[in-house]
Amino acid sequence: MADESIGEERSPRRRPFRTIFWAVAAGFGVMVFLNVFFPDFELSPEDRIAVIRVEGVILDSQATISELKRFSENPSVKAIVLRIDSPGGGVVPSQEIYDAVRQVRNKTSKAVIASMGNVAASGGYYIAAATDRIVANPGTLTGSIGVIMETANVEGLLQKIGVEGVVIKSGKFKDVGSPLRKMSEEERGLMQAVMDDVHKQFIEAVAEGRAMELTEAQGLADGRIFTGRQAKDAKLVDELGNLDDAIQLAADAAGIEGEPKVVEPRRRFSVREFLESQFTGLFPKLEFHPGVRMKYLMAF
Question: Which of 19, 152, 191, 211 is most buried, with most CB under 10 Å away?
Answer without folding.
Answer: 191
